[in-house]
Structure formats: C-alpha cells, structure tokens
Write a structure and sequence with these properties.
heterodimer; A: mainly beta; Cyclophilin; 7-stranded mixed barrel; 3 helices; B: alpha+beta; 2 domains; 7-stranded mixed β-sheet; 4 helices; 33% strand
C-alpha cells in the first residue's frame, strides 16, 4: 500500500471525512471536515469518492514524504507549497491545483496566508483505521483516528473514482458576512436581537476550535426568557448564546445537545466560511427571511 | 403492543432550526417520548435523524427530499404512542457504591437521610430519555416522583469517570472524567461507553436502568 510519512506537522491536524452521523442517541456528534466545501473540492480535484478521508491542517504547516506516485490537491486556507524530489531539486506547486508526487518526493505546505484550515486530498483517500464507520477525529468526544503527529505513516486507500477534467480551480472568495436563519429560540431574546446580531461587527476570540467559533462584540444579545433551557438537540451552525450574550458558532465537533438557547443557525455555506475564521477576524451576520 | 393516545391541546410548536432541521417543542419529557415513538412507528419520508431533548425533538431532514413546509403537516399528523409494558425492553442493572461527596448534602437538601436517598435511587426504574454532553452520557428519568434537585452552585473541574449523579429531574453516570455540576451520590464500575460494544453506549434513549446498592450485595 502506498503511504505518506509525516515529517513535520503543526498542532491540530487530523484526518476528516463526511463524519459519522446517526449516533446522536448515544451522545456522539457527527464530526467530519469543518469546511465541508473545501474538503469536497480537494477530493473532486483528485477524482476521489465524496467519502474519501482528507487531511485537515490547522494553518497549513505540514510536510509529507511520499513513497509512491501520488496525486494530491490542496484547498481551503491557501498556503505556499513546494515539492522537493529525492535528488534535492525543488519545484513549485500551489493550492487549488493538482500536485503530482513521485516516490521520495517531499511535499512542503507552508503556513496559511489567509483562513484557518487547509485540506490535503490524495487520490485514493487516506486509509487510516476508521472508528464507528468514519475516519474523522472528533475533538469533543476524543474519538476517531487520533490527530496526526511526526512519524505517522498514512496509508493511501482506493476511494478513487473517474479522473476529473480540471487540474486547477479558482480559490474561494470569502465573504465577511455570515448568513443565518432565525430560530429555533429567537423568541427567547428581546426583539432587538436582529439589530444586535446584524447591526454591528463581531470579533472571533482565541478560544475558538472545531467545537465552535466564539465571538465577542460591543453589544451582547439580551434574553427575554431568562429561565434555564432544558438541553435540546442542536444543528451544526447553531448560534448558541451563553449568559454573556455573545454567540458561539457550532462547528463540526459541537455537542449533540445545547444547554443555552440557539438564536439562529448559519446556512451550510456560512458554516464552511465560519470554519475558516481566525481569532481576531471581524464578521457580520445577515438574517435571511 | 402500543396504545395510541388522543391528540390533545393546540397544534404542535414546530420551529425552524436552520435549513436541514426543525425543532418540535413539548411541555413534558413524556410527550417527547410519545411523539418520537409515534414518528418512528410511521416514518415520514425525508426525515434522516431524530435527536431527543428534555422538552424537544430535533427532526433532521434531507433538504433534497423534503422541506419544512412539506414536513409541518406530516409532523402535525403524528399520533403519539405511549409505550406499554410489552414494548419496554429488559432492565439493565448498574451496581453503585453510594459514597458520593454530595450524598449527605443532597439528603439534607430534600429533608431525608442518606439511607433513604439510596433507597429512593435504587427503588425505582430509570429510563434513558436521551444522551448528550458526552458520548454515553444518558439522561435518566425515574419512575418515582422527581426530587428536582438544583445543580451545584459551582461546577467541579473534574468529575471522576463512573460517578453517579443527580440534577434536576435526571440521574446519570459519568462515562469518563469531565467537568460537571451535578450532585455526586455514588460511583459505579460500569462502562457507560465502550467501542467494544454495539451500540457503544450502555444506555441509549429508551434503555431501562435499575441501580443496585453494591455495598449490600
């Protein structure tokens, strides 16, 4: 089996796929790639099946050595990319293009220049051992193939399909506006919640992770209903509002149930965008009708 | 055998929860359970997953197969089903050593003795209402009247795995060490979560549990 050996990797890099939905009744969430669109694009660029596992690298920053002829692609947060062959020659490569590796080639992915999560797909997918049917690491449940560390040997599988017709695509144009739909608990907030949410800039705080993007803003959301919310099921993209009044945007590893009211939910496209927000980034929300 | 119950009161409260789910709210946990049983008995096309809460049911759907407008009347038409004896699965037994740090405090809070509190905890059948918080963390409701206990005023930064706890209308066994604000009354060696088991959770929604006093065994 062909493999990639990890020579260098930053913290928070894990394998991800479409996740493991269907275990909510046991208290286990779905996990999966935080930016679904970017992971799917990386897979399409190398002709993989949609369920192939990819590498999700926080801020890029990963170096891999291939032991075979491998076709790879990088999407999501853009990074400088080079390939060094066994004889020391270095050639250029780039995100949003197909990259071919020969045996002994070293793929160097530098630090992301924008965004937060870079996705690396290899034709055939990463065939690490699945847990409960998925190769996604769930950082909240601490379940799944563990985060990638130096020295790991990642096997390449056979989750490939027909070859795609393109070898390069345009990078995404990220909006600074996140779209939400109201509810399910918008009536637990004063009617001004729409202007508090949409009428000011919110900033991403450093304690954000795969569970959620935490935000702060000048004006908090104010509760109209102040009693405790009995725990209830929550969607990915939920804007859960803790007592301080600043929304937490639930990402892939969010808990199955929310303990605070959810004022609104991000659209799937905005979930992907939220997964690329860095601490300190400014965002606005738009409430769709 | 299941007994259908009459629709009572106003129409269901169905709330949007993004573009792929709706949240149905209820007045009691029993209504959640009965509605869910009714929905599972006659599945609605396009519904992909149900997530029970204490007073709610999150209904996830495939947006390519249905939408909230088509879903709403189908949900309104669900006949709640109250499980009868014959539906109820076997009872799982969990041995507990009742030496929790909050045992005496809780007994004092409800005006009883530790021994009577243990008798209350072991003297009823508990049912897993739903799981959340962590894999294998089952929210268990009792057949006896609830104590409706408050949570601790400050949460513990680490509650040991196997801790048997009470909060609100629920009892639970912590599947693993985690922060927690529940009142600790005992501990158990039972694995609430194990990947060597299918399903990995000992008590998914619907499981019936009986606690026994390991000190008396």
């Amino acid at each position: 089996m062909s493999t990639l050996t990890v020579l260098q990797v930053g913290p928070g890099t894990s394998t991800q796929d479409l996740g493991r939905p269907g275990f909510s009744d046991t208290g286990l969430g779905a996990a999966g790639a935080a930016d679904r669109g970017a992971a799917a694009l990386a897979n399409r660029l190398v002709g993989n099946r949609p369920d192939a596992a990819v590498l999700e690298a926080l801020l890029g920053s990963v170096t891999l050595r291939s032991d075979a002829h491998v076709v790879a692609s990088l999407t999501g947060a853009p990074c400088p990319v080079t390939v060094e062959s066994a004889d020391g020659r270095v050639r250029g490569a780039a995100c949003f293009e197909v990259v071919t590796l020969a045996p002994g080639d070293v793929l160097r992915v530098g630090t992301a220049t924008a965004g937060l999560r870079t996705y690396l797909a290899v034709r055939g997918g990463l065939a690490v051992e699945p847990v409960l049917g998925s190769r996604s690491w769930d950082s909240l449940a601490r379940l799944g193939p563990p985060p990638v560390t130096v020295g790991d040997v990642l096997p390449i599988g056979d989750a490939a399909d027909a070859w795609p017709l393109v070898d390069a695509v345009a990078p995404p144009r990220w909006s600074a506006v996140l779209d939400v739909t109201a509810g399910p608990r918008d009536d637990w907030f004063t009617p001004e919640w729409r202007t508090v949410l949409a009428g000011q800039v919110h900033h991403v705080t450093p304690d954000s992770d795969r569970v959620g993007v935490r935000t702060t803003a000048a004006r908090p959301l104010v509760r109209a209903v102040t009693r405790e919310l009995p725990s209830e099921g929550a969607e990915t993209g939920s804007l859960q509002v803790p007592p301080a009044g600043h929304p937490v945007l639930f990402l892939a590893d969010h808990p199955v149930t929310a303990g605070y009211p959810v004022v609104a939910v991000l659209t799937p496209a905005s979930v992907d965008r939220a997964a690329q927000l860095r601490p300190g980034d400014a965002v606005r929300f738009r409430v769709l009708d | 055998m299941s007994a259908p119950v009459e629709h009572a009161g106003p129409a269901l409260d169905v709330r949007p929860a993004g573009t792929r789910a709706v949240l149905v709210t209820f007045g009691t946990l029993a209504e959640v359970t009965a509605f869910r049983a009714g929905l599972e008995a006659e599945p609605v096309p396009g519904v992909t997953e149900l997530v029970s809460g204490a007073r709610t049911l999150l209904v996830r759907f495939d947006p390519e197969r249905t939408d909230p407008t088509r879903l709403a009347p189908r949900l309104q038409a669900v006949e709640p089903v109250v499980p009868t004896r014959a539906d109820v699965p076997e009872v799982t037994t969990i041995p507990v050593t009742y030496d929790g740090e909050d045992l005496e405090t809780v007994a004092a809070l409800v005006g009883t003795t530790a021994a009577q509190l243990v008798a209350w905890h072991t003297g009823q059948t508990w049912t897993s209402a739903f799981c959340g918080f962590a894999p294998g963390f089952s929210y268990l409701t009792g057949s006896a009247p609830s104590l409706d206990l408050p949570r601790r005023t400050s949460a513990r930064t680490s509650v040991p795995a196997g801790s048997v706890a009470l909060a609100g209308e629920f009892s639970a066994v912590y599947p693993r060490a985690s922060p927690g604000g529940w009142q600790l009354i005992g501990r158990s060696d039972v694995a609430m979560w194990s990947l060597d088991r299918d399903p990995p959770a000992l008590a998914p929604a619907g499981t019936r549990i009986r606690f026994v006093d390991a000190g008396r065994a």
